[in-house]
Structures are given as C-alpha cells and as structure tokens.
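HUMAN: Can I see a protein plus its fold?

ASSISTANT:
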Amino acid sequence: MRTTAHGAIEVDEYLRTSRPHIFAMGDVNGGPQFTYISLDDYRIVADQLSGEGKRSTTDRVAVPYTLFMTPPLARVGLTENEARAAGRSVRVASKAVAAMAAMPRASIVGEVRGLMKFVVDAETDEILGAALLSVDAQELVNTVALAMRSGVTASGLRDAIWTHPSSTEAFQRGAGDCGALTPRLYRVLLTVRAWRHPRPSTVLSLVSVTTPLEIRGVACSVRSDRAPCPLPRSGRRVRARAWSGQGTDVR
C-alpha cells in the first residue's frame, strides 16, 4: 500500500487504499486524529460495503474540536485571518464572557473567564467560524457546527429560542452582534416602578430592548433580603426611567 510523505496510509475520499479491497480508518490514514473522525470513517466504509456508497470525506463540513482545559477552548470553521485571506468580507464579534449579561450560566457556576469570537460573512450572514473559550464551550461548538452545516445564519442563531439560564443564550449576543441583518442592540437596564405599587421599592428590570423604546420582556427581581414581588397585572401601567432620567409610561 502507498503511504504519504508523513508515513500515513494513502487513501481516497472513500478511504480506499492503493489496494481497492483494503480500507484504512482512523489515525493511520493521516486524517484529523479525533475519536469522532474515526467513527465517521467507519460510517464511510460501512456505506461502501453495505450501503449506497455515497458517503465520503468530502461530506465533512464544519468539523469542530475542543481543547479540554478550564474553561474549555473550542473551535470550528475559519479564523478571522483565514477568512480574510480567502477574500471573504467579514464581520467579527468578540466579547468577554464576564461582560455577557445574556449568558447567566457563567455566573451561576462561578466560571466567567474566557471570551467568544464569531466570524461571519458580511454579505450573506453566513457563519464562517467561531472560537469559544468558556464554560460549556465543548457543547456550544457542536451547536455552532450544526448551524454551519445546516445553513443557519448568524441572525438565525441569534433569534432562536434558547432555554434559560443556559450557555446557549450567549448566541443572542455572540453571533448576533455581527449578523448582517442584526439591528443595533441596546442592552438597557431600566428601573421601573409599578404605577401605585404598594411596594415602591420593588425593582423591575426591562432587560431585552432592541431599540430605545421597544420593550421586549420584563423580568421581576428584588434584593435577597426582600420578599419576592409579583409582576404587574396585564394592562397595568408602569413608569420606566432610563439613564437620561426621562420617564415613559408603557403597558
């Protein structure tokens, strides 16, 4: 059997060696040395022997990898430099995990170190690559890879509904911040008081705002030494006051 300059067994896209009746799977064929690549090698060979014979290594798109440290570092796709070298017009979003209010799980588990970086095609909104250094990065990268293989855009990843509190909520600020279709996000914390509320010290936080005046959600929170407060009834007016000190009534 023929070998490569590095000593690996030479194979074609169907993992056949120079002897057509012999296949080479796993590390010996010189491909990416990951357990999950060896598993996919098996799928390709099994398809050749007892399937339709269509699977090949050319089907592999957006293969992720993870360096398991604390926090883990995971990557998929192109780096910013690789994308620019390929002549792509790119948008880049990079944000420290500690600064991502949309990713509460990091604070909950006490691991706010790291950052997330997304590289997106500026014209098509296609996700070109991502580097995730954060808690749960080894899981998040699989979601990004699946989105890339399925043609989900950065805006699509941003606008998906994610469970709370979870690390996937970071996609609302990570990929979303560089999406071509993304309006400028105003992450505004507004202090509001329920109209004639029996407990005026209660604080409600309007935390998801796409424009200064469009309020998307209301979350109720109080200090730990106070009893939980109910949200205003449907239709009840609240007075919102932003940094500028200008109040506005919303329903």
Remarks:
- The beta strands are 65-67, 73-77, 90-96, 115-121, 127-133, 190-194, 203-211, 214-221, 238-241, 247-250.
- Residues 1-60 form a domain with the FAD/NAD(P)-binding domain fold (CATH 3.50.50.60).
- Helices lie at 35-50, 80-85, 104-108, 137-150, 154-159.
